[in-house]
């Protein structure tokens, strides 16, 4: 009898221990479960998709050089862009040799030789590029940041070359061994034969020879609530207190972290002053931590491109640029949308900024518009530039809030060497006059 009583007592003690363990791990019934990710971030309710760094590193444009000063530009999500890029991802590059940027006449080579050029605005560290391309680790350029990859055929001796340009602008690295033949490169170049032609201006930026037909979509959008973000960012939202600022914004804090909600801008800014201090930050690990943090605290509602803003021994600043179809979506002072920004210190997020607006998926409507090209565009560039030197020209989407959605208006974004920018707007197809419309697949969705 005593032995049976002891056995039952032991069973009750074990059961009680299991119940207590359950409550400690999963809180109280009805509350959100708390699961810890690999980087010790707290996994909260699902608000968006999760992504890997491999999904966030890609060229902002692909240039197809056809020789005889003929060029084509493909943007992310376009059929031939995706096809060529997938093939390049499977190719291997190794045995790198460092060269001075002055070692060749690149303008002449670009104009006369067939090739493919990938542009990464802002640059990508080699250690991250190795995650999306087969680059054999090489001490010669392991610590570099690359902003251009250029694979071309030397027409004089029918020899292929693969070049990786430093974002610093002073050196270029040539892969002396890579598994692409002249025929491989020429096949990729041929994909651009029937695409809209571009011309290189001042060896700096490209403009289409004719107008580009694209689309102006109206997409469905939703709005994250303050309560969602509180549950998403605080370990215990129940102990947060609210502070109202003079500008109308709301601040929620648990005495350590703070969440500022700007309802008029539909924008949030989260700060964690308790993040580890200086010394020992690794840019690559910080970028991976930033991706993991977004995965666990809001997720991704669309395609995003990683842009490394700055990095030092104290912190890493990284921005993720939103894309819709082939073009990036602008984040402007008057309408905050299209970017997710973080500051990371020793793999811990100290600042996290993003829009409360998110894309639900699907379009309410869409209409065709024309981005001007050729002589019309050249004249407009002279007008908006007012004598300034143009550094870059790129198509973008300007977002406008309408009812329960966003209208994405295509425009040319003109960047000048002094840091200023200007816009050249698209025009409806029905009102365009004296234009030669070239149908392109630039509106293909990513």
UniProtKB/TrEMBL annotation:
Lineage: Bacteria, Bacillati, Bacillota, Bacilli, Bacillales
InterPro entries: YycH, YycH/YycI_2
Protein name (record): Regulatory protein YycH domain-containing protein
The organism's place on the tree of life at top rank: Bacteria
Positions of the Regulatory protein YycH domain: 3-416
């Amino acid at each position: 009898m005593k032995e049976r009583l002891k056995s039952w007592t032991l069973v009750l003690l074990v059961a009680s221990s299991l119940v207590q363990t359950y409550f400690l791990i999963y809180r109280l019934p009805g509350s959100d479960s708390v699961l810890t990710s690999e980087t010790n971030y707290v996994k909260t309710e699902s608000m968006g998709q999760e992504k890997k760094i491999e999904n966030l590193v890609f060229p902002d444009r692909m240039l197809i050089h056809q020789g005889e000063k003929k060029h084509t530009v493909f943007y992310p999500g376009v059929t031939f862009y995706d096809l060529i890029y997938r093939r390049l991802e499977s190719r291997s590059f190794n045995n790198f040799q460092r060269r001075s940027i002055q070692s060749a006449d690149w303008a002449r080579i670009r104009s006369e030789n067939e090739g493919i050029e990938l542009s990464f605005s802002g640059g990508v560290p080699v250690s991250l590029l190795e995650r999306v391309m087969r680059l054999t680790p090489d001490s010669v350029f392991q610590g570099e940041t690359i902003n251009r990859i250029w694979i071309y055929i030397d027409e004089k001796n029918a020899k292929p070359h693969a070049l990786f340009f430093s974002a610093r602008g002073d050196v270029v690295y040539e892969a002396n061994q890579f598994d692409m033949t002249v025929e491989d490169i020429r096949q990729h170049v041929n994909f651009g034969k029937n695409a809209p032609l571009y011309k290189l201006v001042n060896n700096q930026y490209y403009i289409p020879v004719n107008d580009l037909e694209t689309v102006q979509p109206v997409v469905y959008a939703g709005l994250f609530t303050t309560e969602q973000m509180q549950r998403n960012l605080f370990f215990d939202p129940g102990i947060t207190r609210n502070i109202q600022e003079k500008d109308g914004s709301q601040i929620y804090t648990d005495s350590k972290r703070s969440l500022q909600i700007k309802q008029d801008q539909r924008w949030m800014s989260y700060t964690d002053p308790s993040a580890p201090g200086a010394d020992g930050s690794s840019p690559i690990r910080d970028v991976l931590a930033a991706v993991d943090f977004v995965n666990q605290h809001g997720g991704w509602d669309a395609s995003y491109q990683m842009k490394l803003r700055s990095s030092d021994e104290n912190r890493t600043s990284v921005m993720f640029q939103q894309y819709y179809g082939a073009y990036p979506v602008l984040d402007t002072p008057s309408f905050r949308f299209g970017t997710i920004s973080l500051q990371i210190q020793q793999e811990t997020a100290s600042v996290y900024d993003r829009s409360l607006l998110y894309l639900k998926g699907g379009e309410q409507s869409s209409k065709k518009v024309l981005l001007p090209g050729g002589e019309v565009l050249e004249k407009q560039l002279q007008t908006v530039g007012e004598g300034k030197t143009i550094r870059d020209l790129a198509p973008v989407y300007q977002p406008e809030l309408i009812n329960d959605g966003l209208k994405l208006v295509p425009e040319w974004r003109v960047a000048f060497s002094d840091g200023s920018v200007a816009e050249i707007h698209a025009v409806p197809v029905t009102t365009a006059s004296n234009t030669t419309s070239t149908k392109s697949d630039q509106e293909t969705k990513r």
